[in-house]
Amino acid sequence: MVTVVRVWIGALAAASVAPLACGNPVHDGIVDGLGPENPNVPPGPLHRPGEPCLACHGGEGPASVQFSVGGTVYAVRGQSRPAVGPCVQIEDIAGRYWTSAPTNTVGNFFVNESDFAPDFPIRMALVSCDAGTIFQQMQTLAARDGSCADCHSDPASPTSAGPVYLALGELGDGGTP
Amino acid sequence: VKIACPLALFVAVTLAAGCSGVQQEQIGIDAPSDSEQEFGPVADYLEHRCGSLDCHGQVGRNLRIWGCEGMRLDPTDIPSCNRLIGGRPTTPQEHQATYRSLVGLEPNVMSAVVEGHGQDPELLTFMRKATGLESHAGGQLIAIGDDQYDCIVSWLAGNTDLAECTNAISNPKFPMPDASSE
User: Fold this and answer.
1) Strands A122-127, A87-92: parallel, antiparallel or unpaired by DSSP?
2) B78, A156: Cβ pair inside 8 Å?
3) φ, ψ at A126 (rounded to 5°)
């Protein structure tokens, strides 16, 4: 009887601790796969351009600030120069619109989850920040992923639409809006 | 030892015979049409609704969907339907790849649904997920009886409803901007 009680106590203790001890190995692998920070760029709005923002800012950590949408915009297709200044307009399936702050000096933009948490799917466009001009309209919908770079990694390939750009370069440069 | 050796030999011979039998056996199932006329419109709808790169347009998914709005089959293609930026429309080969993925998910269940002329489409896991009857990371995408549902079920029943499939591609429907608020 004593043995049975001990086994039950042990099982209960293990069950209560296990959820705290176990992370998400898939998520951890994605974060680890991004590699270390650039030592010349401190974590902040200018870090890690071109990487999938929500890998760390998607709610599972390690970043404390949570985004709903985020990415990097380049000036010309096939070139690495960032697009500085345009805004990203997001429309969600509920008919709500949100216009991001202008892309910063490395082309990054992000939307804080606390400011706007869209209902997916969403469609997006690169616009002037008064929303008066549409520079590029995304051709397809984002069905559930707020990280642009998950589908727009460099280079374009059968499974990547290539980096997001403001202006079309020559054909063959790679990338789709 | 005298008993063990003949027994081992018997087992080995039996296993070898069993394996060769499996290798030579072909299993047939009833599957819905894979023709461009019947499945092409269904594939185009599935590509648009489910095949984006962040959903089933990924090689890591059980249900894989190919096409110009998502994952491409040809290694020289990019995810774009627009020739002006280097893309090209979905190919018949991509329709076939989508077909094989979809029909191969649960071949025995698919066979039963086709034998029943599409009467019980919810036997199929992908239909239960799409209709919200089973947990689906993408949520409920279609409602029983809507144009999307009818497009798929008509194909399962052996008579693809082209009009419903054409209407289905207009999903998801974003609300029209409210003119009075502008």
Assistant:
1) antiparallel
2) yes
3) -90, 125
